[in-house]
Amino acid sequence: MKDLMISRRRFIKNVAMVAASISALPVVNAIAGVLTDESRMDDLEQAVFAKMLKIALPTESSSLVDSASLPVLSTIEGALLAGMAPNIRQGLRGGISYFNEGSVKSFGDRFVNLSDADATRFVDQWSASAEPPERALSMGIKKLTVLAYWAIPSTWGPLGYDGPVSDKWNLSSLGNTPEPTI
After folding, report:
1. Contact 98/92 with Cβ under 8 angstroms?
2. What pTM, to 2 d.p., does this model score?
3. Where are the domains of the chain?
4. Sequence-separated (6 or more) residues with CB below 8 Å from residue 18
């Protein structure tokens, strides 16, 4: 627990870096690195992402592919965590722990132990919070989880999406558009 004690300024800085990393998820494939022991998810992180997946994207009684049958957690690890700088990865690890503990005050238990209804209310509560770290963590973890689900091509079928047109039409990549010059 002592490792989680950080100054407010450092915490906000780390949350901002994590939020920036999460918002860059679509370009992550170009910068993904090698998954190391330090960048792998620990048991708590896996439990938080699994709970978030269950409440943020319920697939039962729908035509969507069951998230339990997909490697969503592996996608999160390989697509984002492997490419994170160690200091950002450590900040995310602390943020996930902070998020998990955040529900104790209002709901009496850690996020991973809440009922699905209470976990949903907690995420909604933090998403609407006046505190930037709470908003960034709840929305960032949720966004990362849902994006990892939709990054798996087998989830596209029920939507009628059959992949990028650039692949279907055999369009070659022209690279990134250069920044405009003034």
Report:
1. no
2. 0.75
3. 2-153
4. 88, 91, 92, 95, 136, 137, 140
